[in-house]
Amino acid sequence: MHINSFSALLALAAPPATSQGGPPPNPIMSFLPMILLVVVFYFLLIRPQQQRAKQQRKLLEGLKSGDEVVTAAGLVATVITVKDSTVTLRSGDSKLEVTKASITEITNGGSVTKA
Q1: Would residue 85 count as lying in a domain?
Q2: Residues 60/87, Cβ–Cβ less than 8 Å
Q3: pLDDT at 64 over 70
Q4: How does DSSP classify residue 92?
Q5: In terms of residue numbers, what domain contains 31?
Q6: What does the mean pLDDT of the chain come to?
Q7: pTM of the model
Q8: What is the CATH number of the domain that holds 73?
Q9: Which residue would you say has higher pLDDT here, 14 or 66?
Q10: How many CA atoms lie within 13 A of 77 on its CB side?
Q11: Does residue 16 sit within a domain?
Q12: What is the pLDDT of residue 10?
């Protein structure tokens, strides 16, 4: 292939150069990827965490004496008393006082309520 024909092919493949540069880009379009990223993070990270926290609050509000619970450490016990921020549990022959936040699920009979 000859050099002149090669440069002619390159000229056909290249987009035409404009001296005016065209219209300026819309500022909203430049922020659109950032906005989409925030929306995706909200639905993938923030919203599910808020739902889990709401479910945990609801679980702890319904906690009462006599409930069988499982703690975050895996301890299965029965609730004796419920205070403001702590719960007294009985497991086997031991009596324990743990924070309410460590209760992960309530298991009464065959039903399981998870937080």
Answers
A1: yes
A2: no
A3: yes
A4: T
A5: 27-114
A6: 84
A7: 0.60
A8: 2.30.30
A9: 66
A10: 26
A11: no
A12: 53
